[in-house]
Amino acid sequence: MIETPIQRRHRLANQILDVVRNAQFEPGHHLREQALSDLLEVSRTPVRAALKLLAERGILEARRNQGFFLKAHPKDISRLDVEIPPTSDQDLYSQIVRDRLAERLPASFIQSDVARRYDVDRATFQRTLARLVDDGLLQKNAGRGWSFMPTLDTGLGLRSSYEFRRIVEPSALTLASFRVDEAAAERARLQHLYLISHPDLSEVDRRQLFDTDAQFHEMLAEFSGNPFCLQAIQQQNRMRRLLEFGSYTNRRRVKDWCREHLTILEAVTKGETAKAADLMTRHLDNALAVAPSLAAVKAKDPGDEHADHRGDRP
User: Fold this and answer.
1) Which helix (H) or strand (E) holds 44?
2) 154-204: per-residue pLDDT in tens?
3) Is the dihedral of CA 214, 216, 221, 227 positive or negative?
4) Which secondary-structure segment (H or E) carries 146?
5) CA distance 132 to 142
């Protein structure tokens, strides 16, 4: 997928935040354009644009003729990320899935008939269909047209996703190649402690809740050292973002899964991978127990800000 200049700016801003976190800079530290340019292997112009974005967000302070200085405290930096704006492809991808879940699209369709619904160019539409195929949500018919896969159409879909994760994720923790990245684990721990200690989770954006959740599972899959495990969990998270994102409204479950994540994280950092695998299995069983029915998913559009499903899952 082609990255837009705006997306590059946001992505580079997140890379700068990673530098700040890893170096443990204190407020008032001077972030020098040339040093960041050399470190991130990009020119100074995009670095300056990313620094300006961080200044606009109140993370840095821009001082005239002096440069950019860290303003945020380290404990705040630990949980900060700059959300990358979606491309037109990503918007279309989400809309097509939402329309299918709401039964505004048929199970099978001809491209020319469906394309009229969306105000995008043919190339964008083709790329989006290809992504849906790659993610296992769509298949090309032997003759004409396309068909949505059963994972997007039946109550079996969400359950099968959790059952698949129950096979993959605990096993990934016990691989001989499993290695913990201490810095990444610590960032995840602080992000979860922030949510657990938050006095009013209704004030926390659902995107942050979902991303904290999804990134935790991807992080452990990456620790496994097996790229196929990581790819599998990333694919599952893409489906979860579309099928489950709208249910991140019940904040009571959030602190429960945060505590479950932390117990798993504590086990893996101690090298107790067998215990971590058992904890992960129980964690996913708890998740499945509160997973909504497909009827609930269809009743509430994943993009509906007022959706109110039963549980926020891990």
Assistant:
1) helix 44-56
2) 555 677 888 899 999 999 999 999 999 999 999 899 889 988 888 777 777
3) positive
4) strand 146-148
5) 17
| Half-sphere exposure for 243 (CA within 13 Å, toward CB) | 25
The 3-class SS string of 101-135 reads: HCCCCCCEECHHHHHCCCCCCHHHHHHHHHHHHHC
- Looking only at the bridges linking them, the beta strands covering 60-63 and 108-109 are unpaired
Phi, psi of 120 (to 5 degrees): -135, 160
Count helices and strands in the chain by DSSP H and E runs: 14, 6
Dihedral of alpha carbons 219, 88, 97, 245, sign:
positive
- How much is the pTM? 0.57
User: Which residues on adjacent β-strands are paired with residue 140?
Assistant: 146
Measure the CA dihedral 258/191/221/293, to 10°: 40
In this structure, what token pair is assigned to residue 21?
Answer: 């976190």
